[in-house]
Amino acid sequence: MSAGDGLTGDGRADAERPPTYEELFEAHRRRLGRLCRLLLADPQESQEVVQEVFLKLHQAYASPEPPSDWSAWLTRVAVNACHDRRRAGWWMRFRRYGERLDEATLLAREASPEERAIGEETWRRVWAAFRRLPDRQREVFVLRQLEGWSTQAVAEALGLRTGSVKSHLFRAIRRLRAAAVGSGS
CA 151, CA 146: separation in Å to the nearest integer? Predict the structure, then answer.
């Protein structure tokens, strides 16, 4: 994936033409779905936010001056849309309860019975600590640690200074690490 358009070099979009809406959609839909799911912890809300993001992509794609870096733009729009949902507060009262985040299957392989027995309590503590993280710490953690973005890219996407990104990340990791060893948050 290139930083500018998020597309791979497999011939879907060459250097002379911008990526199509469909190419952008295919290149980013899973990543944005995962990002929104982690920030909102609700599958239905996440899907709705991703739909809103792609509606805004459709509008921006047709604008006379589209963004030069679609990946960063889409991430920023998704994070802002998640902020708006959390700020509104109404969605928490009316949201449909789906699969809980701590019950979602996130492992690539099946754990042994012993690993499951040992790890279930740790996972519960870590997910509970993750959900209790302040919004900004959660956003920084997801983008930096789970999405693999550089500190500078996270700072630009969230409108922060790199020092603030580092501080938020340090605090988030400290809380999650404390939860993993069982000493609380």
Answer: 13
Considering the chain, what is the average pLDDT of its residues? 79
Using alpha carbons, select from 142, 134, 45, 138 the residue that is nearest to residue 88.
45
Rg (CA), the chain: 18
For residue 97, the surrounding DSSP H or E stretch is none
**Within its chain, how far is the Cα of 156 from the centroid?**
15
Q: How far apart, in whole angstroms, are the C-alpha atoms of residue 47 and residue 49?
A: 5
User: What pLDDT does residue 93 have?
Assistant: 46
Full set of structural domains in the chain with CATH: 21-93 (1.10.1740), 116-181 (1.10.10.10)
User: Can you give the pTM of this predicted structure?
Assistant: 0.61
- Which carries the bigger pLDDT value, residue 113 or residue 176? 176
